[in-house]
Amino acid sequence: MAEAEGPGGRHSELEPVVSLVDVLEEDEELENEACAVLGGSDSEKCSYSQGFVKRQALYACSTCTPEGEEPAGICLACSYECHGSHKLFELYTKRNFRCDCGNSKFKNLECKLFPDKAKMNAGNKYNDNFFGLYCICKRPYPDPEDEVPDEMIQCVVCEDWFHGRHLGAAPPESGDFQEMVCRGCMQRCSFLWAYAAQLGVTKLPAEDDGLALNVDGIGDQEVIKPENGDHQDSILKEDVPEHAKDAVKEIKTEQTNEPCTSSTSESDLQTVFKNQRLNPESQSGCRLQELRAKHVIEKDTATYWPLNWRSKLCACKDCVKMYGDLDVLFLTDECDTVLAYENKGKVAQAADRTDPLMDTLNSMNRVQQVELICEYNDLKTELKDYLKRFADEGTVVKREDIQQFFEEFQSKKRRRVDGMQYYCS
């Protein structure tokens, strides 16, 4: 912490300088994050009646179900109403979960919002997160004993959280990935390695010349890179079927009325692949088998995936059965993603958000509205003039300066009110 010579020769610590814009931006960012996580969940009604909710914000109560007891999860509304004063672990979001609050796992608590619950929710899945432990290191987060700065990333399959340094492969420095599959889930769902070789987000060298090394180390493959340089949704040319390339050429020819070339844009390719996925008759066979024929080597690392990678998974009958057997059928559901849940929450919050100032004005009569607006304009004018002095002098506005301004403003307001004369007609 920097120090400066204070009055009387004493050193005083300098307070960090934070602008009002910084405060407002940080507050807005925190509000948006809260809306994203909580906006898709009901804060007033227990979610139990909805069954196994596709995705919702969840909590675990350390007070009611400490380590050594059976794990249990509670919904957002119950965390407020039934466990408001308890020690809770925030679990972010989980899929296909039904609220446990007040069931047989809670020996001395009855749910206030929905007491008529079954004794157990057999379809729920639990892990160490419900006791506040995360990653393969089984440590809490934040960890008071961990001095290494590291981010936690959630696996899209098991939904556990992992330190970046414990994933076997460092997260891409650019951060341009949407989802992560941990090394344990990659071992269990080994079919994903065939897709990772083509779709996984990899870190290109600084002197990238348009070539990326295949994950199995066999040969180089040319990558179609978007114009903005973002690699996360790059598609390997050798994976584009010839009839798909022809379809893209037809599209480009119709749009430009010019002779088509051999180059294809990422958006055109995605359009063709999307149409093929929606039309089973256009698929010549199992995409997974085609990818496996390219000799893919499995590794003991996590993998990172771009936006919309799930839509490129094979949807043939055999693959869908395999997803079901591995209990990962949710990978075929784009609405299962955390991003889809967050977007749902943001939309809901935007629709419900009201302006407190307008609500206050609407509750007043005409005279009160005029008085409030006049007071607001006076405050704005005087505060602007007051702060302008500091700007002209190039000095920092301190907390004491703001306090002094409002004290003087209130004093002026009282003098104006006391000096007013009232007449009766």
UniProtKB/TrEMBL annotation:
Keywords: Isopeptide bond, Metal-binding, Phosphoprotein, Transferase, Ubl conjugation, Ubl conjugation pathway, Zinc, Zinc-finger. Pathway: Protein modification; protein ubiquitination. It catalyses: S-ubiquitinyl-[E2 ubiquitin-conjugating enzyme]-L-cysteine + [acceptor protein]-L-lysine = [E2 ubiquitin-conjugating enzyme]-L-cysteine + N(6)-ubiquitinyl-[acceptor protein]-L-lysine. Its EC number is 2.3.2.27. This is Putative E3 ubiquitin-protein ligase UBR7. SUPFAM superfamilies: FYVE/PHD zinc finger. It comes from Desmodus rotundus (Vampire bat). It comes from the Eukaryota.
